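Sequence only, no structure available. Ideas?
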Amino acid sequence: MIVVTGAAGFIASCLVSRLNAANFNDIVVVDNFAVEKKLPNIRGKKLREYVDREAFFDWLDAHHEQVEFIFHLGARTDTTEQDPAIFDLLNLNYSKQMWQACVRYQLPLVYASSGATYGDGRLGYSDQDDALPYQLRPLNPYGDSKNDFDQWALAQPEKPYFWAGLKFFNVYGPNEYHKGRMASVILHAFRQIKENGSMQLFRSHNPEYVDGGQMRDFVYVKDVVEVCYFLLNHRTHSGLYNLGTGQARTFMDLALNTFAAMGQPADIRFRDTPEDIRDTYQYFTEADMHKLRSIGYDRPFASLEEGIRDYVQGYLVEGTYY
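Reply:
I predicted one. Tokens follow.
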């Protein structure tokens, strides 16, 4: 059996689809299934068992001998949430329990970290120095929680025989319909263009960047789950790994490609970045991908043009799921 936590969420539900496509059907999905808006993400998938998040560790104690691999992708991902206690509970302490269970039962573990750990990027975006997480200063409690766990994991004298923490950069793609404000700009753009024929981007409040010139490493969710699948089959080099494309693109590029994928003329407007995130807004992110490439991952990442076209025309137009 393969365990996937956060399985009704965005990235994890796409991973379940990728595993099903490879004939892995004994999948145990773990989540808070009371959040009904997420449930369409896993509808119709081939699954072994549903386990509530709160009951999982008791379940694992009883069934660990049947478990082959754990993908721990469940987390609180709201970057605007300011209550550290929520992140301590769901992102830090739950992940510590997961790690300790994987040590106890010698189970391989892939868990979700985040590019948000790099903060404003002044120390770069390299995953090759295990001393760097101790120097990073994330910009919000979410990033702090992810970096706190990365630090804790690196410091543990006992580790799973294989483990990888994946620092997801700006992931976009199908199955994020439920995410509200935290959904990708592409989904917001699609909805705005469909309704109004125009879309809004955040105005730049940094003189080094023009409006729409803010840059992020946007990575398509199908590439993210391909890396997860690769690690399922290559359990040899443990550690922290960036997961972006390695190429930053502007929000203007993103917007123009969304209009193009919809066959609509571009009409882009700007509004002030909300004050609650203005001081912690990242103006540039770009993953250094050399470490993942060095362990044999050689699949090309979708360009922003390719990813947006597939997402818009393959999923958003019809409102379908991956």
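The two ends are 21 Å apart (CA to CA).
Hope that gets you unstuck.
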